[in-house]
């Protein structure tokens, strides 16, 4: 059950099973993504977040944006899908023209141009029937938190830049919610690894 008014009580004691939809209900009524017509479907506010780190301000909501899923529920769905096995694919984020993979969380939110922007399909990412994946964010010494990320696709090809932006904002929220002493604009996103079917973990480092 959601406990008002702060973020903290939501994440303990079930951090490994909590799913936070990236939602305007989480970020306030004025938060709108660049992709419209979601209605009440979860998506994340794309407004810029100031640099640095701090505890997020108190937000008042009409409904909780936190829902829960069970591993058995996800596994029951996965048995009806076919394709690459979990862990066999990593989603790399590389600036256009760059030699090495890796973009800053701040760059991801600045609409940076990525190489192979449409290289992956919804099928590759094992999206659920609603076109969403789960993102399990983890920092050493802190409990993990799982976010629900909607995918933006055209003709079945995922827009990698939009995915990077949404992953970045989830990571920033995670860093701030846990008051992790690191400047988020010094954190780099290398790639996503699939840890279980349709559940992806971002590989992060500081620069």
UniProtKB/TrEMBL annotation:
DUF6741 domain: which residues?
85-206
One Pfam match, given by its short name, reads DUF6741
Q: What is this protein called?
A: DUF6741 domain-containing protein
Q: Where is this region: Disordered?
A: 31-57
Q: Which domain of life is it from?
A: Eukaryota
